[in-house]
Amino acid sequence: FHEFTDNIYTLSRFTRLSNQLYKKIERMKRRRNGILQNMLGVKCRKDASSDVDDSTRGSAVSRSSVWVDGDLLRRFFSCSDGLESCLLGTGPILRHKHLLCDHNKLHPRAFRRGKLLDRAAYDAYVSLLLSEREQILSDHADPTQTANIDELNTTNANDCIITPESNLFCQECASSYSTELKEKCNKLRLMIDLHDALETDANLDNETHVYALSKKSASSIKSSFSRMMKSTVQINAKPTTVDLPLSEESLYSGLDALSLDLNSVEAESSNSKGDHALNLDPIIELKDDKVNKTITCPHESSNVLCNKSLVRYVPYWVWKKLESLYPTAICHSRSAHSVKYSLDDIGCLQCQHANDKQAMFMRNVDEWAKQCYDRSGRLSNLYRRGLSGEKYHYPT
Fold first, then answer.
1. Most Cβ neighbours (<10 Å): which of 43, 68, 124, 382?
2. In this structure, what is the dihedral angle of CA atoms 94, 73, 180, 263, given to the nearest 10 degrees?
3. Considering the domain boundaries, does residue 394 fall inside one?
4. Is residue 202 located within the same domain as residue 255?
5. Which residue has the higher pLDDT, 295 or 49?
6. What is the mean pLDDT of the chain?
7. 172 assigned to some structural domain
8. Do the domain assignments include residue 311?
9. DSSP code string of 361-390
10. What span, in angstroms and rounded, lies between the C-alpha atoms of 157 and 91?
């Protein structure tokens, strides 16, 4: 009996899924025919009147063209995406308000992600979306909840009409955005040049002075640049066929995803090894804030400039590129002659003085300890002196 019940349940579930799939296929067919006839066919006349209510459903009255989100438009034209999240959700189907700048105009960063439709094509687009919403709501909703369906059907299709005549272009944001892109482009060139220069040992034969670079810093610079580039490419190549409206994060791609904030180079990824999720933020968490900090003493000098396992040397032009990206980098320059012939470096005199002082203190402690012990190696002599009150002269 239980097996028979399970089979009945499985059959009913399969029948329900088959019906949903059949309804979706029929809906996609009607969408395709509507696109061909009303948006791409000869019936799409610019002076044609739409059956969409202009006052409540987002029709572009007396406007030559309207800007719409390109991601949703591509999904709609694919005739394979059901757009269930957009059509079943509450509120407008076309959501553009979050793409506006502070001046209530379309931000230049979002402009290239959309497309301008003439009035007839836009009205047909809105009409098809609303018709499909009405159909999908009737298929999924409870027949007793007709009031909710009617309420959604009267919702505006577009939360913000964007047209060339009103709010398509913002001069202030366009100027600042252009400046930002130029700065990022220049920084990207520097990053590429510096990455290529650090890949191999530079030729120092014609240099008079060379600059020390911690091998740890050099490795971190290359790896951080590579991670930033990979992160930028992954963000740019993200699939857009997701059941979500265009978000602020998805606006960043290409140079927009490149961060101008290069905090430091002692890089450690914030994600654990088991975390395979894509980090949308290209900025890598860093544990140091200066280049060459690991080879620099507290007095801003260095005692390891001759240690080839810790330090490599780069020419002047490489160091200047690195300084332009990391203004707080600590500079340690030496003559090319001393580096070429491995001449000893004096190092930090303050560190040497502190080391000498510490060594002298330890020698004094050893001498005091030897004077305290008697021949048998015990502290009895010191104990007797303490009882008798005899004054002990400490070594200086």
1. 124
2. 90
3. no
4. yes
5. 295
6. 74
7. no
8. yes
9. HHHHHHHHHHHHS-TTSSSHHHHHHHHHTP
10. 8
Question: d(Cα 248, Cα 271) in Å, to the nearest integer?
Answer: 23
Which token pair is 38? 């009303």
How do residues 204-231 score in pLDDT, each as one tens digit?
Answer: 888 888 999 999 989 888 888 888 777 6
What is the span of the domain harbouring residue 242?
180-340
Please give the structure tokens belonging to residue 182: 């130029």
- Residue pair 295/302 in contact (Cβ under 8 Å)? The answer is yes
The position carrying tokens 């066929």 is: 241
Examine the domain organization and report whether 132 and 201 are in the same domain: no
Q: Left if phi > 0, otherwise alpha if psi is -120 to 50, otherwise beta: which for 209?
A: beta
Condensed to tens digits (0 to 9), the pLDDT of residues 261-311 reads 665 444 333 333 333 332 323 333 333 458 888 888 888 888 888 888 899
Assess whether 65 and 196 both reside in one domain.
Answer: no
The mean pLDDT value for 173-193 works out to 88
Please give the radius of gyration of the chain, using alpha carbons only, rounded to the nearest integer. Answer: 36
Sign of CA dihedral 62, 67, 68, 73: positive
Answer whether 58's CB lies under 8 Å from 66's CB.
Answer: no
Per-residue pLDDT, 381: 56
Structure tokens at 247: 């978000």
| Largest Cα span, the chain | 121
Cα–Cα distance between 29 and 17 in angstroms, integer? 18
The sign one gets for the Cα dihedral 318, 322, 323, 325 is positive
| Percent share of the chain, pLDDT over 70 | 63
Residue 313, beta-bridge partner list: 212
Domains: count for the chain: 3
Q: Note whether residue 173 is domain-resident.
A: no
Structure-block tokens of residue 12:
């009913």
